[in-house]
Amino acid sequence: MNESPTDTRHFAFLLVEDFSHLAFACAVEPLRIANLVSGQTLYRWSFLSENGETATSSNGAVTLVHHGLNAVPKCDHLFVLSGIHMRRYVSKPLLACIRRERARGTPIGALCSGAWILAEAGFLDGHAAALHWEYHDAFSEAFPDVSLRRNVFVASDGPVTASGGTATADLMLHLIEEQHGANLSADVADQMIYTAARHATAQQRVSLQSRNGMRNAHMARAIEMMRDRLDDPISPTRIAEEIGISSRQLERLFGKYLNSSPRKYYMELRLERARNLLVQTEYSVIDVAFACGFESAGHFSRVYRQAFGISPMAQRERLD
After folding, report:
1. Whole-angstrom Cα distance, residue 153 to residue 26?
2. CA 125-291-314 angle, 5° bins
3. Quick one: residue 264, left, alpha or beta (phi over 0 = left, psi -120 to 50 = alpha)?
């Protein structure tokens, strides 16, 4: 490998306990491969954790780190990388560290669920952010001033954020292209056998159309309306009117493409959100009920039990 160029960029990764190992690998490996295929040390990286010795990922793998929170090296990017249970590890020393680095002028970003930690620190208010889709419901309730996007990553509005998993590789390929051109980014993707690198505007989840082989604009619009009104449901009749078809036609479309009815599918969306809020937040059962469009805790509990075979309270107690 050639001598390190003067513009070598240093990426520091702050690993929060239970961090996503997949996102971690997808963050570091593109940098390593960029060095390999370029024949230069374009990038170097270091790892940090709260105890300054190790960090354990959600799959149990233990990573040795270079620094603790009080010894963050000078770097070009500091990425907070977390995974499941991120709220459990939002500590005062962690928040103090990233606030201190921000004051020093260090560009700070987040990977996977790390955007939650940046939001706790107040870094994302008024900005767009990407976060793993599993945490969207709870995040939207906790941080209404953040413009949460379904994109795989956000790199044009405030702190850089990626939604995790292979979206982290998409972000790194984007940064490599910005810094060293499209040819190098393509070469890195080829080495990774990654032939479908996504732009920031790509959606995280497989679209309904792709998942069900569906190409119907009326269905897509109806489901979009449902997702936008989970806390204040509107009737299928109103949805049909808004998209310009009859209620009977809407019923036929849901039966054809989803083997369901509009009312049943809408309820499933609301209950899915309710389960996410019960698992991911400390909201009371009544607050979850209201956030998902139910007028009373009693009605919500009955419907929830019918759907999942367990009461909302028992669902939460399972986590303790």
Report:
1. 13
2. 115
3. alpha
Decide if 107 contacts 74 (C-beta within 8 A): no
3-state secondary structure of 195: coil
Residue 319 token pair: 């986590």
Over the stretch 110-169, which tens digit does the pLDDT of each residue have? 999 999 999 999 999 999 999 988 888 889 889 999 998 888 899 987 899 999 888 999
Strands 108-112 and 77-82: parallel
- What's the predicted TM-score (pTM) here? 0.73
pLDDT tens, 248-290?
Answer: 999 999 998 888 999 999 999 999 889 888 887 888 999 999 9
The SS3 call for residue 138 is helix
| Residue 279 CA: distances (Å) to CA of 57, 133, 153, 285, 313 | 20, 14, 24, 11, 11
CA distance 247 to 252: 9
Helix residue ranges, H only, 259-311: 262-280, 285-291, 297-308
Amino acid at 11: F
Q: How far apart, in whole angstroms, are the C-alpha atoms of residue 284 and residue 287?
A: 5
- Measured between alpha carbons, how far is 8 from 42 in angstroms, rounded to an integer? 5
The token pair that represents 184 in the structure block: 């190098």
Alpha carbons within 13 angstroms on the beta-carbon side of residue 172 total 31
